[in-house]
Amino acid sequence: MTTATDIVYRLPQERKLVSELPGPRSMEIGQRRLGAVAAGVGSSVPVFAADADGGVIVDVDGNSLIDLGSGIAVTSVGASNSAVAAAVAEQAAHFTHTCFMVTPYEGYVAVAEKLNEITPGDFEKRTVLFNSGAEAVENAVKIARLSTRRNAVIAFDHAYHGRTNLTMAMTAKSMPYKRNFGPFAPEVYRMPMSYPYRDELGSDGVAAAKRAISMIEKQVGAETTAAIVIEPIQGEGGFIVPAPGFLSTLAEWCTMHRVLFIADEVQAGFARTGTWFACEQEGVTPDLITMAKGIAGGMPLSAVTGRADIMDTVHGGGLGGTYGGNPVACAAALAAIDQMESLDLCGRARHIETIITEALSATKDELDGAGLPVIGDIRGRGAMMAVELVTPAEDGTATREPNPDLTAAVAKAALAQGVVALTCGTYGNVLRLLPPLVIGDDLLRDGLAVLCQALKDNA
What we know:
Elements: H1 24-36, E1 49-53, E2 56-59, E3 64-67, H2 70-73, H3 82-94, H4 106-118, E4 125-130, H5 133-148, E5 152-156, H6 165-170, E6 188-191, H7 205-219, E7 225-230, H8 246-257, E8 260-264, E9 288-291, E10 302-307, H9 308-311, H10 327-342, H11 345-369, E11 375-381, E12 384-389, H12 404-416, E13 419-420, E14 422-424, E15 430-433, H13 441-458
Parallel strand pairs: 3-13, 5-6, 5-7, 7-8, 8-9
Antiparallel strand pairs: 1-2, 2-3, 4-10, 9-10, 11-12, 12-15, 14-15
Helix pairs in contact: 3-10, 4-10, 7-8, 11-13, 12-13
């Protein structure tokens, strides 16, 4: 088997700065942006990309940056993977669009077949393709409501499901995702999440699930609930890994009461956490699963896959969209999934987890030893890892007070040294690491060294 270590990269895999960041060309384009792009579109990094490959992004000024974000878990196979690029070019040379609802094509069918194969569950499945993660989640809810003939949908604290009206209602964090955009879709109810670092129930996932179930039964009612929608590992909320037993207990309750269990694997799916999908690590088989981000190597594509008897309850014409399952995106998805299989990127993700955990744990020990307990928690799975930063008490003892200022300062300092790192979390105090799964060990360790030094310098 070919492995990730056998990849031949098109660009040098190195961190190299030839200007301050942002450089003059990025600053020039940034000024143009102010007069052309709506102010509501933000960017975490003030540099403009010109090229990207493997684990690096080269900006318009020629700086080579280490990419620890993957376009928010999208470019898992690399931002210009040669197999994906070739598949895109080949398909585009034939046709870029016909609309599957008008003149269908084999690529859509092939992607559906592949997703039916690799998603959890040995039952018969069906798949429908869309464009974005939010679109997939919204359609999963549509399917659940129609098939169950119920209306209520359960979401969780710290959840992020998208920016459409329904998915904003399901998303927990107000700023910047929801503020002043309401009124939101009704019949969405929020329940407490298992957040081991901050939850009073700690690592007792079963107890946390029973707490949520009790609230559902009292405040909503099982008989009116169409679905529970949950990220097996929460993304924007802070890479929160629920305590063992939380997901499985919720899933058992769903089965008992004919409530659909929908796993939102938009960010955690496609080898990111060391298995094809994060819910597999909890032994949970969802009724429906939503996917996007890493599915197509950077091309816009999303999907809902689920039990055939549920998916096929929707009347003809009830699902679809003009661009859903675009043929170029389908070609990219087939190539990207093939790369994940042939390069064993699930195994690669687990290897990346070991490297990240070792680096962050050593830094935490060093800071704790120096009386600077700013690293509250290190968590995640595979190449979806996070460090939660907190503010020590005046006497130097540890607390769990969120430290968003330090988080922003560390990300800024890392960027100044050529490392792109993202932040997240309900409290804005989590550094999240989402490197491409094809990043080399040396480059990853260099990026982590820069990030850890930024933590030490700003603690």
